[in-house]
Design a protein that fits this description.
Layout (H helix, E strand, L loop, with lengths): L5 H20 L1 H4 L21 H14 L4 H21 L4 H4 L2 H18 L3 H28 L2 H5 L3
Helix pairs in contact: 1-3, 3-4, 4-6, 6-7
Length: 159
């Protein structure tokens, strides 16, 4: 990654803010064992600009801090998102595989966290978190990526 400019910092602040707002607007879908976190569609931003990691992790931390599990979820959930983003970037040449990485990371890590915090059944909870995350990424994020990758106006936002 190259150095951050003021424009980069402002862009990542907006990414974080939009992520937080989407989580809070759809809070009834964003927390608990069955999650359909609409804000996760924003993870595709790493395909356009690796610097988006900063905004996405900041947004995840703040949104999770505001959730029912507070600081524990802020740290653990942000770690799960960091793993998901790293895996997405590693598999970026195979988008159909990369798009599945958030489900894997969140299913394992958030499923375990919910099991430990509120004694939900481990495998079922991992499965539900995986399913919700995978549905968001496959049904919403991947089609959105396909639309945006051909849009020169959207790509210009990252120049």
């Amino acid at each position: 990654m190259s150095t951050f400019t003021i424009k980069d910092i402002l862009r990542q602040s907006m990414v974080a803010a939009i992520y937080v707002v989407l989580v809070l607007i759809f809070a009834f879908l964003s927390y608990d064992d069955i999650q359909f976190r609409i804000a996760e569609v924003m993870l595709i931003l790493v395909f356009f600009d690796k610097k988006s990691v900063l905004g996405l992790l900041t947004g995840t931390f703040i949104a999770n801090l505001a959730g029912p599990f507070g600081l524990i979820d802020a740290v653990v959930g942000t770690s799960a998102t960091a793993l998901a983003l790293i895996l997405m970037m590693l598999f970026r040449k195979r988008k159909s595989l990369a798009i599945l990485m958030p489900g894997l990371a969140n299913g394992l890590i958030i499923g375990l966290m919910l099991h430990l915090l509120i004694d939900l059944p481990l495998l079922a909870t991992m499965g539900w978190v995986w399913l919700g995350e995978t549905m968001v990424m496959v049904l919403l994020a991947y089609p959105l990526y396909r639309i945006l990758k051909g849009n020169p106006h959207f790509k210009a936002l990252f120049e």
